Amino acid sequence: MKRLALMALSGILILSESCGNAGDKKEKDEVKKESTPCVDASDSTFQYQTDQFADLRVLRYQVPGFQCLTPKQKEMLYYLYEAALCGRDIHWDQNYKYNLTVRKTLENIVASYKGDKNSEDYKKFMVYAKRVWFSSGIHHHYSSDKIMPEFSKSYFADLIKNSDPAAFPLHGGEQVDAFEQRMEPILFDPNVAPKKVDLDPKKDLIKSSAVNFYEGVTQDEVQKFYAATIDKNSKTPVMTGLNSKVIKENGKLVEKKWMVGGMYSAAIEKMVYWLDKASAIAENPEQKDALVKLIRFYKTGDLKDFDDYNIAWVKDVNSVIDVVNGYIEVYSDPLGYKGSFESCVSIKDMEASKRIKAIGDNAQWFEDNSPLKPEHKKKDVKGISAKVITVVVEGGDNAPSTPIGINLPNNEWIREQHGSKSVNLGNIVEAYDRASGPGVIDEFYYNDEIKERVKKYAHLADKLHTDMHEVIGHASGQINPGVAQPYVTLKNYASTLEEGRADLVALYYLLDPKLVEIGVMPSLDYGKAAYDEYITKGLMIQLSRLAPGKNLEEAHMRNRQLVAAWVYEKGAKDKVIEKKSKDGKTFFVINDYSKLRVLFGDLLREIQRVKSEGDYKAGHDLVENFGVKVDPALHEEVMKRYSKLNIAPYMGFIQPKLVPVMDGDKIIDVKVEYPKDFVEQMLYYGKQYALLPVEN
Ligand code: ZN
Hints:
disordered N terminus, alpha+beta, binds zinc ion
């Protein structure tokens, strides 16, 4: 079969023929060094953005390359896709105990409300429902504040009264009126579960955070409980507490494990069913080994099994298909123990992986030449595997809002002894790029020279920043002997400091000729554009995402301001970065890029020292002094300037849908579809993957 496809590769448009036909590969080799026997490129007319509401935009992404896979590979992807979506309820329930109840309530109203669906009130209700779907719960996915409905309680009562009473998640024998009364404070009372994750060190973080990781216990009790469990002398410590909810039984703290036969069993059993099918047709023994070990972990709940799985997963580097599936990031736990369920199913993007591989191949050079103190450098940076992936589906904590880079596993000793895998989510980044316009750059950058530089170079500079952050940043440095892992020593500041450290490694090298030398960056102008962006985003643009009167909570936002504000202050007397005013607008302008690079290096060395030595006090001071507080006047100015652009600051995705083609009960092929309607997908997921009872 022949097919004409327009393929965009690193900014060069290549007109390329053929799909599944390797016969005429010589011609293509003249354009591109390596052969591509099959071409399944992005569609240039694809509609990326489909919806915008509140502070959110809904985008879609394509899965180029999918049709070129073998039927077996597609079948395996389909199984992993199902496994990913089976964890959806787990993530909702982890975020807040009543999220599933709220979601089922919203689903039923959308499906069965008999009143006027064109009224202003109903439109407000739909905005609320979409916001809750987008955030996988009633708390904003980024700020973690409770999402407040803009319709009234009496309208809510009307919605309930005029919808199918049998489909609400009623308690046994409960009347609909009583149900409505029970739901009211959950939706409307600003004092009930006001925050998903509260990091205010003056409070009991468990009491003040709404996440469903602990119940009936205090922060102090939990910290003592885990302090007694953690083996500080172990050279191979497990991620203590990662896969359980802590409750009190007969006055004693116990863990309810998330496993087959334990908490969330119904969803996990289904997930294991699909993972089992995937492992049976794995591409190679390494991939199979990893999946078998993941299944074992879900069955035993033993964190040693999780470590075994991660080691096997790190070793699986040759497969085209990859999957992240498990309790992974701990950002949603104010104490940093509990992993949120996430999944990312992907295929390798061979072309773009070359860039990231060139960086990974030089990992030792980057470590040796970094500004870290000699004793904090890794003598032997091991097993950094880096690639660009094409996402096929994401679930749990990765959807609808997604990261653009992933570096795993998180267990420090596994990273040190076995290495880690680092990926850049290529088709997601592409969708972001295609969906955003030039308005923000024109508004927030000082003059034409800077604006042009950012417009011209930031596209690749952003990719390089992500690559360096993930591949070199998170992998670099070592902890002093006898010092525990950062989540133990640095507690609630560990995530912010770790992200800051990885950003600083990226920033430090983005102005190094080494990147030009190894052929991944055409000139240092890209590095300058990266600096322009980082400072302006860290000190100003990101404030557009923050509600008035709030301080920064989210780890990545905190780290960006921490880095930008620290170098601004330390370079103040030399005017390395200058705060300027033009037409009543504020700008931060870099006067000396080389000096700024030195300052980035200084801060990198200090944050590495904090991590290596487990210096809680210094970490606390860095984050609290530079990364938390916001200048209210500047914040207000940024909000005003940003709102004029009418761009919602947060983006998330509708997931592709995989549809198996059956011959009897055998899958012979799988098709990928790109649904356009966010609400439809949420309702479909709500039906198809409703695996858990409400209120676990
Ligand atoms: Zn990171």
